[in-house]
Amino acid sequence: MYVVATAGHVDHGKSTLVSALTGMEPDRWAEERKRGLTIDLGFAWMALPSGRELAFVDVPGHEKFLANMLAGVGPAPIVCLVVAADKGWQAQSSDHRDAITALGITRGLVVITRADIAPDAAATTEAEVRAELQGTPMAGAPVVTVSATTGDGIDELVDTLDAVTAEAPSPDANARLRLWVDRAFTIKGAGTVVTGTLTAGTLRTGDRLHLLEEASTESTAVRGLQSRNSSAEVVTPSARVAVNLRDVAADDIHRGDALIRPDAWSIIEVIDVRRTMGERLDEGVHGLMLHIGTAAVPVHMRPFDADHARLTLQRPLPLQVTDRIVLRSPGSRNVFAGVVVLDVDPPELSRRGAGTRRARELAPRPETGDILAEVAGRGAVELQRLVRFGLTVPEVLPGDVVMVPEEVGSPAKNSGESRERAEASAGAWLVHRPTLEGWIARARSTVDAKLAAEPMAAGVSEKALAEELRRSRPPLPAIAHSKGSGSRTAQERPADAVGVRMLVAEIISRAGLESAQGMVRPPGHTAGLGEAEAAVAEVERRLTANPFAAPEADDLRELGLGVRELAVAESAGRLLRLGDGVVVSPRTPAQAMRLLAGLEQPFTTSTARKALGTTRRIVIPLLEHLDGRGWTRRIDNTSREVVR
User: Fold this and answer.
1) Other CB atoms within 10 A of residue 544 CB
2) With 60 as the cut, is the pLDDT of residue 412 above it?
3) Are 234 and 283 in contact (CB under 8 A)?
4) Strand 429-432 relative to strand 401-404: parallel, antiparallel, unpaired?
5) Dist. CA 457–CA 93, nearest whole Å
6) What is the 3-state secondary structure (H, E, C) of 488-553?
7) What mean pLDDT do residues 267-288 have?
8) Cα gap 304→302, rounded to integer Å
9) What is the distance between the alpha carbons of residues 65 and 514, in angstroms, rounded to a whole number?
10) Residues 542, 582: contact at Cβ < 8 Å?
11) What percent of the chain shows pLDDT beyond 90?
12) What pLDDT does 415 receive?
């Protein structure tokens, strides 16, 4: 199926034309039929001679209903501009032309209607139409003259529609789903139903989706599907589709809401844009209405120059780079400007002159996005995040962009890749090479400085190293404390914790370091005792002379052996710390076992103390250590035995 939206001035015969083609009445409301005036969107469909099916979205032409017209044309890939022969080009003809241009619709045709009323005016009207369309994407569109009343020209029009649809590119059934809702209602026995124009992606019965509403995001599932009044298990683009949803109320759904797949889109409230047509963006207008798909959202515009600006949306939407947007003054009934989205995660602007600098940054950026600029501005960015932004990630990356880890392989190229391909690249990062080199150097210097200042240190903890890298410029990405619907916008969503840890591990590896038990250090590094070496050697000498005469706490303090020094000595296998601050040789437990095995079993603590020639301060933690190793076993509160 192909979807075509009508456009044109009020009372030029759009609805009559659709009815003549399809045999269906597109006006849904009794008031519309009574007044002969289309107020809201109408729908009808037909089969073309080629077998292709065509769905029409009929839009109102009156200036009061421009918002409704934009909701109909917004999601449509093909447009049919209607101009009456007896009336010629009129005000809303211009407004609708401007809207089509702003939305970037390049496929369509022009139909001159009511030829039976003014047959002699058709040629003049066609010349006028062609003049008005010069310089727009519709300039070369075919023009057909018809009379919907007499049927003259209808066959030629059908053939032209067949030719236009034949030349249209095939929609991408594997692309990310974004269904803009144009109607929501309840059917008895079925529940909530929403309708929209499916231009990309695929819908299946049972799909789990998110419904992005004005104030919240609701989880839902597809209970059933219909297209052309027929039930379907699967609907592919392009198509008019009705979706029966579970667990959501129709009263809570409005035109401009969107159905998307979980985690497939970034939900955006701040964008940087470029003017594609219309008024200069620096003309002093700040409050505007943004139109995309079926959504109409108030925005505040901060112009950077005549052609670039930042838009802050009153309500977040699922947007991507390359999206075409119509801007309209709230009190006006015509198009203010058309813009294309260049950045859906723009940097903060806080310093004086930041707007002018931002305009210079955006000026050379292609409308399809700039991978190098996106990565360089952040230092590092998750590959899947760029895909959610709508950017195409090429097979061969720019020279200053590095994929981490390298073994991930070919990235998901764009939003239209299969789900399996996208999952294959999950967790991968794109990193700006100079930034990565800076992080690697900082990791080395941080570890070297730590070990030079503290020879007994086991290294630098991974957490401390990550915090140090976050003080770099650009900083290492922050870790999200929570993930999911609680973080609605791209600007508010830090990186996934697992992904950041993967990036840190790659930096450690490329720096020639290793991580063991959460500590980062050079390979083969062992903590040195430094100035404590002599004191530890003295304790070893004493324990060699009498292994059960553990030094007192005052002795250790006098030797300068504190908790840290003793821990390093223990990790080096030089000393063994028992409970209650008792320090012995690592050989002491085995030496004790040789003596305890010669005692009559079981034996008491007092007997063990006498056999070892030591004190209760030492024998009790020593026996508990032997119990813990399974070499001795307690029998009751006073006695234990050697385990044979």
Assistant:
1) 10
2) no
3) no
4) antiparallel
5) 77
6) CCHHHCCECHHHHHHHHHHHHHHCCCEEECCEEECCCCCCCCHHHHHHHHHHHHHHHHCCCCCCCH
7) 94
8) 7
9) 66
10) no
11) 65
12) 43
